[in-house]
Amino acid sequence: MKVFINRKPVLGPWGGGNKTVSSLVSSLEPHAEVVFDLNHEDIDVIFCFDPRPSSNGVWYQHFLNYRDKHRCKIIQRVGDVGTHGKPDLFSLVSQSANLSDFVIFPSKWAHDMISYKKDNYRIISNAPLDDFYLNRDKRDRLGQQVRIITHHWSTNVMKGFDIYEKLGEYCSNRDDIEFTYIGRYPDSAATSGINLVEPKDIDFLSAEIPKHDIYLTASRLEAGANHVLEALAAGLPVIYREGGGSIDEYCKDHGERYSDFESLIPTIKKVSSAYSGYKGKALDFSLTIEETIKKYLDIVLL
Questions:
Q1: Same domain, yes or no: 270 and 147
Q2: How far is it, in rounded angstroms, from Cα 227 to Cα 232?
Q3: How many domains does the chain fold into?
Q4: 185 contacts 155 by C-beta, under 8 angstroms
Q5: pLDDT, tens digit, 9 for 90 and up, residues 25-45
Q6: Do both 274 and 166 map to the same domain?
Q7: pLDDT tens digits, one per residue of 11-30
Q8: For residues 82 and 79, what is the distance between their CA atoms, to the nearest angstrom?
């Protein structure tokens, strides 16, 4: 069996989609030949991670052309649905999903967002790498200072920098709360009161996140938010913003929701005052990427 994947694994601090590509490739290789170009006449499955053109200009239309000629199967994994200021991507994902032989959605929210009507799909939640479970701290009591953390690789405004700026300003005048941001941060955003850490690899993240008490996300309209899954795997309760898309699905049993900055501070205090219970809910999270990839393999190797 030969499987074409239209994205190659990339080393370094990249988002969750790249982590899934890497895991899928390594899991597929014992069962099938994995290729990254269409210069083959015997491809059985085209696995599309992103319908947009790759660095080589190959995009979804090329997959349709190949299928017309060679009768292979196209599996579309929906990732970004274009809600972070990419209306053209929203249209492309909607069209390509409807032309694919099978579609994988990372959340019910992503499925509903593009109003998918067919029944040739499955909702398979994203999952964190096992690395994030390695350094879980089961301590269920807070110290004198509440340590809050978040991490993002994108500087898109939808990641919630309006909230992070205000929280940093709030923290700058207090010694009972600390806020750390790991990742890429907009040059135009205020940094007062924020411990900024440049993007780091998984080894660093999996060791650093558990040193904190609460994970915060202000991101909105996420189709499959890996950052909160990594936080839960690290054992942190998540405080998440209303309207987070998949985040609401992923975190509803493992944290607390807020609506704006005015409600964020009371939410932090609520979680802090009942920390043992929230910590226990976070530690109940046990989803692994192996479970997710196995579900992918069941579809690809069918």
A1: yes
A2: 9
A3: 2
A4: yes
A5: 999 999 999 999 999 999 999
A6: yes
A7: 554 555 677 888 899 999 99
A8: 9
